[in-house]
Amino acid sequence: MNNYKLLSGNEALAxxxxxxxxxxxxxxxxxxxxxxxxxxxxxKEVDAQWAINEKVAFEVxxxxxxxxxxxxxxxKHVGVNVCMDPLMTATYSGINAxxxxxxxxxxxxxxxxxxxxxxxxxxxxxxxxxxxSSPAEAKKLIKLAFEISERFDTPVLFRITTRIxxxxxxxxxxxxxxxxxxxxxxxxxxxxxxxANAYKKHINLEEKLIKLQEFSNNLQENxxxxxxxxxxxxxxxxxxxxxxxxxxxxxxxxxxMTFPFADAKIKEFASKVENIVVVEESExxxxxxxxxxxxxxxxxxxxxxxxxxxxxxxxxxxxxxxKTNYPKPARKPVLCPGCPHRATFVALRKTKVTVAGDIxxxxxxxTPPLSALHTxxxxxxxxxxxxxxxxxxxxxxxxxxxxxxxxxxxxxEGLINCAYNKVKGVIIIxxxxxxxxxxxxxxxxxxxxxxxxxxxxxxxEKLCMACGADIVEVIDSSxxxxxxxxxxxxxxxxxxxxxxxxxxxxxxxxxxKPAPKVIADKCKxxxxxxxxxxxxxxxxxxxxxxxxxxxxxGCNVCAEQCKFGALETTK
Length: 571
Description:
The chain is α/β, with parallel strands linked by helices. It is built from 21 helices and 22 strands.
């Protein structure tokens, strides 16, 4: 009897890799790819590791491939940017045992600062690209990815999007097939990419691409479905499902190995249909190639480069219509009730300094009414941007805010750079003892591995001093105390690190800190308590303050803002 499990695309992908004999997996948390690594942690046969950042994750996974075991790297799309340096050279050197690079792209920017299309990286890096259209297909294709990797001595890019990553499907679960480790042979001509070696490897890479294109042309997963010859649709990824739902009678060319392009199949398809429309999310990746081949086709209006597609938008694309209905957020994003970062942002708002922010849930400090974060670019950028801001505006005019996991990811280098270049200013590390935004994963500062094992715990205080900070202080206190400390440190004209330490577990511990009590007779309706932007405290239809005891975590930040004692705390 077949064994089926309800799995998300990420889980199905990881299950398929496990069954394919993968022995090493590395990642850094990032939606929509986080739970790939988390799924691997249940298997004793897989060494699953959270790395401090994506570049390190890529390199340790590549090293495992060199050593002779099948390995996999996964991250969200912008994480691939961080590992581009080793990626671009690994395409020259090749691999030993199979090596797959999973990119979790995020069309629609559900949890990202951009929606870049990482299909373009496959062409840029000159490596094969596979794209599943469903969780079940993700499980099937990941096995193929390892086979391609070993057959052609190349990393394989495996692109999964948010919709597929988080959609669930009944997937047949099989047994693991153990793959013999490949012996590692010392071969500098292959693994040492000095110019003389790299030049030859580049020639080999171009020859390899020709063979990969032939493989793509013959791959049955690049499938032609001929029905109504008046309309031929070329598509990939989840767009295939939208096309089949919207135009079930159309002829379809489904590209599963999207790069190298299956030119022979594209020409064959074009010869069998009267009109070709390309339906693809994000960039006109496939459309531009078909046009370069000299084949007439129609793609989507440029407005559909923004956001996800759906069955309704497929009809607009085929009919040549622009996008008119841009989605609106269902609700305003807000920090969780009891979030330990809230007190810091309330304090920062009062100091009126310019705040360079970073990637994490604390980015929500930018939203009104907190309005206490003024720049966010990428992981680690808060520290380096602060260094420029204080140098131009003054050391008391700007601070950096960064989480503990993000500081380990790429904030450390920024601190070293600040110390080296004599920067004066304050870096605030929001240390809640976890990687909260992506689901409370551990990081080096927690002393816990991906598999929940105890390990060496990074001492942030000692690290910051070693990196050159003049002053390092730790605080776990009220908004007013944090505000006073920020004012004190910004006035020192030194390079300071303030670690605001508040364990996330306190946020969910409702027994130690009960909710404040609303004293209606004392309330002056100034609504200062509302400005902390907590969903647990609201105004009712009559303008009275109401507190939801089920949501409230008892952090008392709202009570601190009340000058009239209308929110009574219980110790």
